[in-house]
UniProtKB/TrEMBL annotation, chains A, B, C, D:
This is TetR family transcriptional regulator. PANTHER family: ACREF/ENVCD OPERON REPRESSOR-RELATED, ACREF_ENVCD OPERON REPRESSOR-RELATED. Keywords: DNA-binding. InterPro entries: Homeodomain-like_sf, HTH-type_Tx_Regulator, HTH_TetR. Residues 32-51 bind DNA.
Length: 209, 209, 209, 209
DNA sequence: CATGAATGAGGATTCATTCAT
DNA sequence: AATGAATGAATCCTCATTCAT
């Protein structure tokens, strides 16, 4: 990595981090490029030097967030001294943490995916995001298979598909649970964290032997 | 209902239906009042005669959609000649149908809920929507309890809470499943409907005795 | 006056009174015909049966207000048992009272006057307003002349002109004094009424012998 | 002052001057941002680069106008070779001139004043305007006191209060006199200027010894 | 006589993006 | 490499007024 590349990365991260903060507080739509520029202490045009447009900032952050998840769950899955059940709950926690930091990434992860690689390549980062998504799915699939081998899980379908199903249920539940946290507290006298853990447990029941 | 009220309702529905179509295609934010007016063949100002603002159109549609769900599942749950399992799958189908027609309602149902009634009452329809949501939850809770009585289900927690958990899982899964339908078809060689039914079955497993 | 005319007058006053209230609270520009109609409990179109447009309501009220002034000060001036000085202060009070009730009339009285009678006649009521204005001026002029005859006032110019000058000073001072009432209270520890009376006294000094 | 600041000032003044012209002709409310932009030959959005909103243009002009008054009358009051009476009439002329250029400023000066400094600070320029207003009042008060010392004036109250009273009378009279200039010419066969000077003379009589 | 219904014509403000320097 | 300057294109919403019934 040349010095120039390092500088570039530095600035991109600088900008992206600021954007992440603002997106998380006010949402993507209600965060203007002006705000990002001002808050990150760059001129608005400079933002456009490092990112082609607003969407690219979003995608950059999504890629970053998903990579974090990938690394987070990989580490958990690859660790030797944990039970499969522990691993499962820790994977859930990785997602919960990401939501706490960058809720808007979840909205993006729930969006339509472009299946034609050639189309994806037209938008910078889009294909990378797809790949990381696939990596995550494979990693979880691997975890499920290992669990089955270990006689902890019982899979009724292909691991890759089950992995995807878990992914979608978890994402949906975490997003929903966070949005409705007030409702949950009022109605069930239970904080969001406990509630989510209860749901995670129920979901685990599906494959637990 | 007087003739005048009928006319009013007619126009409101006319406008709302057009909006529903546009919201479903382009999303709420990217649908402008101009578009709705043009497409519904009213002048822009006339739209404002029937709806106070854009949000009211959205809420009108959300209320309508949720009321449809409520009625749909009530009918199913109250019917005498169906097994509890059949009822469950049919409830799922009600949600699936609504998504097909008005996906944006799901986005709204996943949004934060205002818990202070006095605040809800400030925005027309908001409290009605809340009430219908509660009705739906209660109805599903009732269904779960009956299922338990019938020895078909085994509930590990209060029916109302389980009802809510099912609600959020179903909503999340349907939304996610639809957004990712292409992915599902490509990866798992399975159409969206079958896929969703498989997930519904897995979820049923949680409470099935 | 036929019954029909009585009805017409009744409705006009009904509407105008409501408008007066709203104009006084929110100003003319910020009061919409919708509001007037709703508040007066007529349909919006009915308003247009009794008044050609919004401006006519304003003019109707201005005419009414100015006629009240005219009558008020005429009564004072024509009364036998008051000193000229008392009469002066009472005239001032008539204006003060009108401002309290209908501040917006003052704004109108300070507006440009159309001098060509043929032009005035094109807008309903405009010429009537002009005439009442003239009447008021003449009445005050008469008062000043009597005061001079009584050896209470000393006029340095024609009474009609002085009358107009007093009219403009009084109007300006009352309007200004009301708008700045908070400032007056804070800076001079004096309530608006006392302050205005002090100014009226100073102004009286100009002609007092 | 850097070149950039100069440019900024140049554009602000460019825009403000155009607005001033339009405001003077058609009034503030009836002048649209579109008009200002078109007339000043900027794009509408560019206007918003230099002014936050329409109100800020108004306040900018009000501040400018009042500062002009302040400087104008300060210069007059501080000059050594004029009689107090001359100074008085020249001060009146400063106001008359401002009205000729920017009548709408007078309307603003006659509006309610926000007395809570914290509230004023929320709107850019508002507090500055207040301060300049105070400066003007103090300067006139100083003039009155000097006149008293010089044995030319006889003050019956505190100079600051008299200063304010003169201010309000003058503003009111100039505004009224200008609006009614046609009436004055027709009725009294006298041009506006002479008429106003006559009124100024009468007003001077109040404090003249 | 009263009005329900409909609308044309604005109007303020926002913001992502471009481009010359 | 960084940015100051400028803007085109939207977007939501308001309201006085008309007209057929």
């Amino acid at each position: 990595m040349t010095k120039a590349e390092k500088m570039e990365l530095f600035h991109r991260d600088n900008i992206a981090d600021t954007a992440e903060r603002l997106f998380s507080i006010n949402g993507i739509e209600k965060t203007s490029m002006d705000q990002i520029a001002k808050e990150a202490d760059y001129s608005k045009s400079t933002i456009y030097v490092y990112f082609k447009n607003k969407e690219e900032i979003v995608l950059y952050l999504v890629l970053k967030g998903m990579t974090e998840i990938k690394n987070g769950i990989s580490e958990i899955i690859d660790s030797k001294d944990k039970s499969d059940e522990d691993k499962y709950y820790q994977i859930c926690q990785v997602l919960v943490s990401l939501y706490d930091k960058s809720p808007f990434i979840f909205s993006h992860m729930m969006e339509t995916i472009e299946m034609k690689k050639e189309e994806r390549l037209k938008v910078p980062l889009l294909d990378d995001i797809y790949q990381v998504g696939e990596d995550i799915n494979e990693k979880i699939a691997e975890f499920l298979k290992t669990g089955e081998t270990n006689n902890n899980f019982k899979l009724d379908d292909k691991a890759e598909k089950l992995s995807f199903i878990y992914w979608m249920m978890l994402s949906g539940v975490i997003m929903f649970g966070n949005k409705k946290s007030q409702y949950i507290e009022c109605q069930f006298k239970q904080n969001k964290e406990d509630f989510l853990n209860q749901v995670f447990a129920m979901m685990l029941g599906i494959i637990k032997k």
